[in-house]
Structure formats: C-alpha cells, structure tokens
Amino acid sequence: MRFTPLWFILSARGYYFVCVFLPLISYVLSLGLLNSDVYSIPFRVSFLLLVPALFLPVMLMSIEWRLGVLRTLPYSKRNLSAALLLALSGIPAAVAALAGLFSAAVLALIVGRTDLRTSWFFLSAAGPCVFLFGSIPFSRLVVLELLRRTFPRTRLSVHQILLVQTLLAVIVCLALLALVPQRSIPGVMLVAGALFFPLLSLRPDAYAYKLRPMDTTQKPDGAKVSRLPKVFRKPVWSSNAMWFFFMVTAFFVAHSLPHGVIRAEIVTLVPFIISLMLAGILSEYAAFFLLSPRAHRQLPVKRSTQAFRLAFSLLATPIPVIVYLIAVTHPGVSAFLGEHALEMPSVFKEIQGRHAVPSPSFFSLPAIALMFMFPFAAVRISPSRSARALGIFPLVFYAISLNLPARLTAVGIGGPAGSSVLFIAFLLAWFLFWRMLGNSLIYRRPPWSAVK
Amino acid sequence: MTAAALEFRGVLKRFPRFTLGPLDLTAPPGCIYGLIGPNGAGKSTSIDLVMGMGALDGGTISVFGLDHERDEVAVKRRIGYVSPELDYSPWRTVGRLIRFLRPHYPAWDDAYCLSLLKRMRLDTEERINTLSFGGKTKLAVVMALAHRPDMLLLDEPLTGLDAVSKSDLFPELLEAVQDERRTVIISTHSLSDIERFTDHLGILNRGWMVLEGQTAALIERFRMIHGECADSPPLRREDGLYLLRHEGNRFKILADTLKDPFARLQAAGFTGLTDAPVTLEELFVALVKETAS
Question: What is the pLDDT of residues B249-289, one digit of tens each?
C-alpha cells in the first residue's frame, strides 16, 4: 500500500492532528452557537455532549505508540504486575498536580491576575483534581475490575467498554452539574474531570491483562507464547491526547456556562495547564521507566535518559491550548482575524470589552519557554520522520497567533535588546526543530559526536 | 589476565514463581557459548539481565570486565542483541530503523549493514510489520551485526524459522562467530545446532546452572552405563551417577567419569557394566530430567 499523507493522518501518528486541532477548531466554531440566547439549555447540553461524542470514533483511530511497550515487555514484566506498574505511575502525576495547582492559585494571586476569592476556589479544587489526575491509573484498575466482574463471561470489545464508560461519565457529569455550587472554573474543572475521568481511564492495554484472556500461540518448539488479544493491538486511546481532550473540554464547558467567563480565571488556567504538563511529564517518565520496550532498552543509552527525553517531549503537548489562550485574549490577534474576515467568537469580544488587555509578557513568557522545548516533542511523537513533521503545525499556529514580529517591535519584552534576543531565540528554536527533523538531534544524538 | 567476555557471579533474580540463581557463568573471550535448557529454565531471563532488562536481586554481571549496570552504555555498545521479542515495527521501515540505530553505535558499518541486508534479501524500503517472522529475525540479526559488536547475544535466534530461513541465517551467523575476537552467547532449544558450532556450554534448569564447560570435554566426560543389580541401590548425584531408567534388575545410568563411576557402581553391587558415549541431546535430557526430579 502506498504511504499517502491521508493514510498517515488517519494512522497512529495522526493523533496529534486529530486529537488536538479538530477539537480546537470545533470549539471555536461552537462557541458562537453556545453563547447565543436563541438555543435552549437542553440543546446546549446536548451539543456539549455531541461534540466530544463526534470525536470518539476519530479518537479511536489514534494508536498510542507506546502500545509497542506491552508487546515487547521483557518476560519478567509480562504479567499482571505490569498493570500495577501502570497504576504506580500515577503517583508522581498526583504530586505534580498538587504542586502545580497550589502554585497556580498562589501565582495568580501574587501577580494580581486574580482575587483572593478566585484563588481560593481554585485551590479548593486542588484536592478533587489531584484525586482525579493522580488516581487515573488506579481507577483504571478499579474500572476494569468492575467491568470484569459485571461481565465475567463476556469478551468486551474496546468499543463496548467505551460505551459503558461514556454512559457512566454522563451520569456522573449530570450529577455533578446539579451539585457543584460555583459555576466557576474550579467547579467546571471538576465537572469536566468527572466527565472524562472514566474516558481517561480507558486503557485497553491495562484491560488486556485482565478483562480478556491472552491469545496463546504455540511456537514450533512447543513453547507457549501469550500475546495481547488482537482487538487490543489495534485502536488504543492516546493518554496524551486525552489530556488535551480534557483541557479543551474543560475550557469548552467553562465558556458555555451561563455566567460567562472571568478573565482572571483564564489567567489562572495557564499555570494550571502548565501544572498538568508537569504531571503528564512525570507520569510519562514513570511509565516509560517502568515499562520501556525491549527495542529501546537494548540501546546504548541509559534508560533514565531515554525516559527523561521522552517525558520531557510532552512539554509540547499543550502548546496549542496555551497558544489559543494567547490568541483569544490578545487584541492584535483579534485585529488580525478581523482583517482576514475571521470573526472572533463573541465571548472573547465580550471579554476584551469588559477587561483590560493582559500584559503580553504574562502569556508569552511561558509560551516562549515552551517553544524552546518543542524539539523534544518530535521525539515523543514518533521515531518516523514524517510523523515528526506533523509537529510543525503547533509551531506554525503558535507563531501566527503570537504575531511575534509585530509584538516584538510594538510591545517588546525588555526593550529593543530583549526583543532582539527573543527574535534570535525564536529563529534558533526553529533551526533546532528543523535540524531535528533531519537528524533527530535530541534523541539520536550520539554522545560521542562531540569528541569524534 | 584477560577479563571474561561474560561473567555472572552469584546472580540472583527473584520472581513470584521463579528464581534464577544464584548463578555463576563464565564465557571466555572469543568463545561460542551455548546456553541451553528447557522452557522456563531462565535462559532468556539471563540474557535479559545482561541487557539491563530487570534489576538484579543479588550478584554481579560483568561484560569484558565492565559492570553491566554502572557501565551500561559502554556494555551495550559492545553487544549485538537478537531476541524474538525485539519489536522494531514502530520504526515502520528498515531504512528508518537503520537511520535510528546507526548514531547509537560508534562502530556502525554502513557498507556491511547494506551487504547483510542484501544477503538476507531485505530492502531498506521494506515495511517492518509486513515482514514474516523469519524476516524479522533476519532484520534483528542484521541490526545486531551491523555495528560489529564484540559480543553477540542471541536469544533463540533460530526458533520459529523454517528451513529456508535457517539456511539464509546460518551462514551469516557462522561468519559472525568465526571472527575469533567475537564472543557469541546463544540460547536455543535446537541442540543439533548448538552441538555443531558452540565450544562452550551451559545447561540451565529451573534457574540453576546444572553443568558448564567446554562442549567437547563435557560430552567426553559423561558416559552412558548399562548394568545389572539385584537390589535398588541409591544412586546419588553427588557421586556423579544419574539414574535414567530402571527395568527389573537392569539399570541405565548417566555417569560422570570424573568421579570414578565404575568403582562406585561395582562397590554397590552392579555387574555386567558396559558403557557408551553420550550425545549432547542424551546428556541434556538426562541432566534436565534428573535435576527436575
């Protein structure tokens, strides 16, 4: 079969595109609809549920690269303890989420971007959020055990599991919508977390260990080999994409609620996203360290180094969300969109009308810092060059939305000298990125090249 | 004194239902070491441990005098590793895999790699997940050889291969092992293959090293003894005597000639003793059965 770009996008490595950009585009398009008074609340709720539902089949097509991990585990790990190891990998994520949430609340207060009340609410959400994020791997085990006991003789497919979990999620979500008193971001986060908590829990690789028996084949020498059941070797949810999905949806839910959006809370959301990244990185690190595949572990690179590089690459994952935040709150972007006949979602017009424009440095600094980390992303995505090429989209999106050259000259950070430094840094980041596309500077760089 | 190519000293690895070791193993430089044993004996686990797949619960592993944990990178650069569990399919094509692996090894030989690919009838544009089982094994062998390692670790390289694939692979393996400086550690079930080209053997069973030494010397050392005895005298492994079969008053015994088996058997009342050489397969089956019982 010819390797066409379309095939590629629909294949495993396409998740970056599928799971990140489509929800974002959909989100932008749907904001106008949701904020219109024409539609009733049931319609809005239905739409709210419909949008993620539309993405489910597409998401199913995303195959996590790390699935290979489970097929190539050393003998010593190919048992139920692998599921336990997956579960343990959630602990650093929980710790990081706690630290991140705390700093997010305090930081926003310190820089004067929020008031004490909002900060307090955000902090009060830390407990449940930490529980949600930290307990994801554990909950996987719980959910799968529940399913296994409920359907002891049934061989459930991924799609059936998904259906059960979605139904559970909807029930939990509706219950929380009724219970959450504050329709603020912390509350919404909680609701969204509850909605996607069971979806995040869907890890067929974990299910494969318990819910279905392993496929056993016999080698010519008589040895029996157990492999994952076929259904689990195909579509797998990408946990990273699910992080994204969660964040976008949380944002989506926040904007669709009747009370509108408080800009200060959006500001608070930025460090929150960063904290999620940190959580994801640590989780990724732990998971890779515990379950790195044989093909990687044979390489003459320390496993901790590999795990660090792969985990660090996750930093790039939320770039589009951060970019989006920058884009929707910056008047330059609004003007840019207006010039090109692209209407800004009404909700953001409202925000900009009601509040002062935030300092660009507040948004741009973390984004620029992230940009420097971007080359790591390509490593994470895939060892294949064309897959890594997909990573260019967030960067392009970033550059456009940041409107960097105009910003550097018009606003600047630290005057003309600072602007120059930033501009050079930007070019350098691009160079590093392209260089890596050709030669995988980060991951493949041989340690001896410096002395050769 | 030259360091052993591979040395296990008191290596211990515990699993819930299996314990490997304490295991001692010595493979001199340049040898072809066959690690044999029944399923679940610990062959693959031993090789996995060398490659850092699993932490030791005790003991040390050294490769060319380097500690396999402390000097992990240096050790792995000197090893070419082949395992049926090695999955290169995430790299999609052979060419991409080569481009990925090449920079990790200072001694990577592109020309050699291409010639190996040609001989194995593999193409750089070929998709890895469309290769047959034999094709994937060949690819793993090429990747293991292309950086001209000092040691080849071959975990069941011939298992599952048909005769044609074996005939493709064998010459390359033989050529690889003919390099006198290169040490080859091969684990396999195929005893006929082992007997043909190994010069050292280690027989593992249930996580224990039952026997280790030079292949020819080991085979010469053991004899199959037939004899008669009216009673059923106890035959002890410590005396180098392994009871294989007992029908009426006729006994078939595997005997370790280092422990003077004839004198011991005559003292125990055996008469009509005759002996015959053993094949590797007979030796292996006898030792494994005896240690299992």
Answer: 888 888 888 887 778 877 777 778 888 888 888 888 877 77
State the Rg of chain A over Cα.
22
ipTM score here? Answer: 0.77
Contact B73 A219 (CB under 8 A): no
The single-letter DSSP state of residue A202 is -
Does B48 contact chain A (CB < 8 Å)? yes
Is there a contact between B13 and A76 if contact means CB atoms under 8 Å apart?
Answer: yes
Q: Parallel, antiparallel, or unpaired for β B241-247 and B250-256? A: antiparallel
- Two structure tokens written together for A236: 């797998």
Beta bridge partners of B209: B204
Note the pLDDT of residue A76.
37
Distance CA B126, CA A96 (A): 43
CA distance B252 to chain A (A): 27
Least Cα separation, residue B21 to chain A (angstroms): 15
| Short-list B106, B19, B10, B97, CA closest to B62 | B10
Given a contact cutoff of 8 angstroms between Cβ atoms, the answer to whether A201 and A136 are in contact is: yes
Whether chain A has a CB inside 8 Å of the CB on B86: the answer is yes
**For residue B181, with 0-12 CB atoms within 10 Å meaning exposed, 13-18 middle and 19 or more buried, which class applies?**
exposed
Q: How far is A65 from chain B (nearest CA, A)?
A: 7
Name residues whose C-beta falls within 8 Å of residue A295's C-beta, 6 or more positions apart in sequence. A68, A72, B86, B87, B88, B90
Radius of gyration of chain B (CA): 22
A300 interaction partners in chain B (CB closer than 8 Å): 72-77, 104-105
Chain B positions in Cβ-Cβ contact with residue A289 (cut-off 8 Å): none
The reported pTM is: 0.55
Task: Provide the pLDDT for residue B19.
Answer: 87
Residues B96, B100, B106: CA angle, nearest 5 degrees: 135
Please list every residue in chain B whose beta carbon sits closer than 8 Å to the beta carbon of residue A298.
51, 76, 79, 81, 86
Average pLDDT of B41-63?
A: 88
Record: contact B87-A222, CB cut-off 8 A: no
Q: Is the peptide bond before A446 cis (omega within 30 degrees of 0)?
A: no
For the CA atoms of A294, A298, A300, A301, the dihedral, rounded to the nearest 10 degrees, stands at 20
Residues in Cβ contact with A374 at an 8 Å cutoff, skipping those fewer than 6 apart: A315, A316, A319, A391, A394, A395, A429, A433
Chain B residues lying within 8 Å of A382, measured CB to CB: 90
| Rounded distance between C-alpha atoms, residue B82 and residue B187, angstroms | 10
Residues A263 and A268: their CA atoms lie apart, in Å, by 9
> Which pairing describes strands B6-15 and A224-227: parallel, antiparallel, or unpaired?
unpaired
Chain A: closest CA distance from residue B93 (Å): 9
3-state secondary structure of B91: helix
B189 has a chain A CB within 8 A of its CB = yes
- Is B87 part of the contact surface with chain A (CB cutoff 8 Å)? yes
- What number of residues does chain B have? 293
Q: What is the DSSP string of A259-324?
A: T---HHHHHHHHHHHHHHHHHHHHHHHHHHHHH--HHHHTSSS-HHHHHHHHHHGGGGTTHHHHHH
d(CA A249, CA A255): 10
Q: Compute the nearest-CA separation of B52 from chain A (Å).
A: 7
Best to test chain A binding among B72, B147, B156, B284 (most A CBs inside 10 Å): B72
Phi-psi region of A345 (alpha: psi -120 to 50; beta: other; left: phi over 0): beta
Contact pairs from chain A to chain B, CB under 8 Å: 93
The closest of A141, A144, A76, A82 to A287, measured between CA atoms, is A82
Chain B residues touching residue A73 (CB < 8 angstroms): 85
Tens of pLDDT along B155-166? 888 777 777 777
Residues 138 to 177 of B: which have CB under 8 A from any A CB?
Answer: 159-160
